[in-house]
Specification:
This protein is of the alpha/beta class. Helices cover about 15% and strands about 40% of the residues. Strands 1, 2, 3, 4, 5, 6, 7, 8, 9, 10, 11, 12 and 13 form a 13-stranded mixed beta sheet that branches.
């Protein structure tokens, strides 16, 4: 089994960060503050350190990034992990915070990771975000996630099927400019699949 890369960004983290066995932990800039609060020692710390200005750990590898760059610290953390062979990602602190632009950038990052055929789960309080692709459908139980929403990450998603939900779809089309998949309810077990394009699935506990 390939190791999981845990990335802790600087947005909101209200949940407990769970570390799978042998996980590799990367903190992106002030995501290090969340790690400190939960007594997590990262394996790597990346950032331009414009938002985290306190003392840096002495025994952790640090990659200093320029302030002027084309990608965010979180995006760079994903790229670094990709280059080092990671395919499974769990990301905390990618939503919320003081700046909504970082949340939007991280939603675009989810699309990028889906296009690269990476497995990514983004944790945001009582919600988790993941992608559904033609190669990977997703099933979940009502007791775990009674509510969910589905959005088109691609401009057009074709062959969208939602089973086991209050509002079902069969071979439908979702587009990125209309939120048809907002606020659905799970029955006993729901299954989401798509034939063309990438979906963003948001599960609510």
């Amino acid at each position: 089994m390939k190791k999981t890369c845990i990335i802790i960004a600087g947005g909101d983290v209200t949940e407990q960060i769970y570390l799978p066995e042998h996980a590799f932990v990367i903190c992106a800039d002030c995501g290090y503050l969340h790690a400190l609060k939960q007594q997590i020692i990262p394996d790597l710390l990346v950032g331009d350190f414009d938002s985290y200005t306190d003392q840096l750990p002495e025994k952790t590898e640090i990659v200093r990034l320029p302030i002027e760059k084309d990608v965010s610290d979180t995006w760079y953390a994903v790229q670094w992990a990709m280059e080092h062979g990671f395919e499974n990602f769990e990301i905390y602190g990618a939503c919320g915070g003081e700046r909504i632009d970082h949340t939007i950038a991280n939603l675009q990052l989810m699309r990028f990771m889906a296009m690269k055929h990476l497995n990514a789960v983004l944790y945001a309080g009582i919600q988790i975000l993941l992608t559904v692709t033609p190669e990977k459908s997703f099933c979940f139980q009502k007791e775990a996630y009674p509510h969910f929403s589905v959005f088109a990450l691609s401009n057009i998603c074709r062959g969208v099927t939602i089973k086991g939900a209050k509002y079902a779809l069969e071979n439908a089309e979702l587009v990125s400019h209309f939120p048809l998949g907002l606020s659905n309810e799970t029955e006993d077990q729901a299954e989401i699949s798509v034939q063309e394009g990438n979906l963003l699935l948001i599960l609510t506990k």
